[in-house]
Structure formats: structure tokens, C-alpha cells
Amino acid sequence: MIRIGIGIVIAVQFLLTGCATPTKMAYSDETTSVVVPSNSVFLMTATLKNTYHPSHQPTLLVVNVEKAGAKEKADRFNFTMDKQAKFKETNKAEEGNLYLLRMELPPGTYEIVGLNCMSSGFPAGFFYAPLHENLTVLGSGVFYLGHVDATVRERTGNEFKAGATLPLIDQAIAGASGGTFDIGISDHWDTEESTFRTAVPKLGNTSVQKTILPPFDRAKAQEWWEKH
Known about the structure:
The structure is a single chain. The chain is of the alpha/beta class. It has one domain. It is built from four helices and eleven strands; from the N terminus they run αβββββββββαβαβα. Strands 2, 5, 6, 9, 10 and 11 form a six-stranded mixed β-sheet that branches. The chain has a five-stranded mixed β-sheet with strand order 1-4-3-7-8, covered by helices on one side.
């Protein structure tokens, strides 16, 4: 039996925006909205690469975040890319595409589910880099979560796929169905602080606390993929 996989489901969610709320990044030059005083803003960077099929580099579309026990659209957030988020899109496997992410969330318990991506080559393929990181928002402030390295490599055995199986040809050519993601999380704040403050002027001199996410749990991502 052909496994359709979660990738197509999430790609359709993004295109239709019927299952999640499209949400702008905090401190964006593309909006006049200001950060709500009671909310928190979470800064994170992500580098996406495809070393398996280098002509199809993942470009980030949305970051999927959900409230704990999400049951409706208002509990799911699709943080969309703006010009500041698309900090460096080289579409080169040796460098990858680098994104500056700024997620504003009200108090509550959340899960950063993953990164929904589309390939840079033709035909377009869809990728999904799982994160499954829990996040507790207690009050106001700005916090740095770390740097995510997500690299597509050739899949072996029953490893979770880097994207959906269907459409067969498109996903195979992109390396999404035959690949998987290796994901690492690390602290780059010493070098990334100046990048954020220069690229996102509205951040200004706001104090930023480090709250680095735990290491990627591959077993958890595998279990979630097998159930979907």
C-alpha cells in the first residue's frame, strides 16, 4: 500500500490555510502591528539543506506551531515568511538557506511541530522537517531558542520521509520521498545576536534571554510519522 504521508496533508493545509491561522512574524517591516505586552517573542534561526538531491533545496514556507491539545484553527499557527525571515536563500547545498524566525505567542503551552518547505527546483516538491519541540509561554519577554540545522539525506530502512510519497514523480525527483532529515539544534547566539539586531531593526535593544531547545528527538519524530 502506498503511504501518502503527512507531507501532502501539511502542504494542503498551507495552500488552503483552512486548518491553521496564517500569522505574521514579530517585528516585521511588512506590518505596523506591535508586540502585545503580555506576549512572548521567540527568536530562532534555521538552515535548510538538501545534500541528497542538491538541485532541489528546501525553501521555508511556514513554521507550524500548535497549542497543546489543539482542536480548531485558532489553536494552530502558520508563521509565514517575510523578507527579513528569508535572510539568505542561496539554493546551494553547501551553504543552505538561512531563515530568521520571530514567533509571538500569548501565554500557554505549545508545540513547534515543524518546518513546511517547498523545493527550489522543478518540478516543485514539498518537504517537512519535524521538530516536535514543546514550548511553555509564561509571560512577556524575548527569548532565543537556538539554531536548527535540517539537512535532507538519503533515507534508509523505515526512517521517516523528508516529504510525502505522492505525487510520485515530483516527490522522488526532489528527494523528498527518498530522503529523510537529519536535524540538529545548537546555540549560535554569540554570532546571531548582531544578525538579528541588524536585520530586524524593530527588535532594537530589547533584552533577549537564551532558552535553547532540547536536542532533536528522532524517535519521537519517527513515532509521529508512523502514526500519520
